[in-house]
């Protein structure tokens, strides 16, 4: 391939409108381009790289015994990809002889912000089908190990910690990379090393100092004027109390119905809506619209003490407030709060449940001795087992049994992010040979000189015949521009053909990951390159 015949337009500066280092570098190297809709187009050099990246994933899945299927992109707008594949597979699974089965697909996924969007990069979807739940759970562990092996096989820095979080059961896993700036987070115990995802981590909030019984007996709830103080920060500052002593009450509509539920938790905690949905077995929930209920509910002053508002039909509480004494809560009328609240004595909840996000310093649920640390992370893979497939097979005795299925997604876009951050320097990308869009750049420094160009072209043609991917830079540009572009685009091997060197019978060769240059006799350059590529 010749540069002048290839669409490759590098930039002298990083794009000013990019928020991601990965996107900025790929755009500068001419691999991607933002479109008018803020999505990204993979340009020819970037697509070469993406296809090589996908091939590594294919090879690893085939080693594991998985078979590839393809789902047309237009189908993904109507149904989830796992449902589409299960629907197609279900027609062929009739007997126990058809099981087990493992398939994978490389196709689009859901979009995310801040990174190259996942509907612009194929995601690796893995589906497995087994006779029993026990076999599925056992095999799903092997799927997890296979995904870990895929991550291990990629040229990603070993200094980036990879953590595996088990969720709810032995057949659900999240695999995260701990990075400085991530779009997710994990909790990590500083004692036993237990890992959980931020959305699923159970909490044991630190206990607050309790008042003694004599002190409690002398205190009863009383109303205090708090004019215009609605937020936790405003109330705690006005009353000179800690946010952890204030009970906040959030109001939700469940499943878009008429039921309004009040959820109470400590002022220093944040509600985890995913936990709330799971606890209530709800399909959806939405925060109550203040404008819709203006005049009917005193927003900012709602509290669980003797709730008389008939619109709020249920009250539940996070375990963080259980046992809280000398607390503050809303007074259920404008500009008033209640103080001296003893939760167990004064408040009546339908039930207490873990409904909050884990916080830095919380007690580890597993060992109950260590403290939790929160680490920013990237989600690399999510695996879940024992899906209800509505698929059945006949066992050895002709009995109809359900098929047990597992599903996993490998987040290719995040793997690319990690790859780029692990394989770059101040000059640009550094592509390892197996994943490089082009393994060799033949740099023709004097393209107008017939001898220089013909010699460079002869090496180009020879290497292509040997199955090596080669780019020949035949542009009429200054040598400095060509050197910078070669480093920016990350070509692993650069061979410089110049008139002066050829007169001496040598060319200059430089490896992208090394600083030194070598002068190689022109008669030996083919052997030299083949040795590097095949090693």
Structure commentary:
This protein is α+β, with helices and mostly antiparallel strands. It has 13 helices and 26 strands. It has helices at residues 21-28, 44-63, 81-90, 133-153, 213-217, 232-239, 273-280, 343-346, 412-422, 450-465, 479-489, 499-503, 525-534, and strands at 32-34, 40-42, 67-68, 101-107, 123-130, 162-166, 172-178, 184-189, 195-197, 222-225, 247-254, 260-266, 285-287, 312-318, 327-330, 336-341, 352-353, 372-394, 400-410, 424-425, 428-429, 440-444, 470-473, 493-497, 506-511, 517-521. The strands form six sheets. Strands 3, 4, 5, 6, 7, 8, 9, 18 and 19 form a nine-stranded mixed β-sheet that branches. Strands 13-11-12-14-17 form a five-stranded mixed β-sheet, with helices on one face. A five-stranded mixed β-sheet has the order 23-22-24-25-26, with helices on both faces. A hairpin with a 5-residue loop joins strand 18 (372-394) and strand 19 (400-410). Helix 2 (44-63) packs across helix 4 (133-153). The longest helix is centred in the N-terminal third of the chain and has 21 residues, at 133-153. The chain is elongated. The two termini are 23 Å apart.
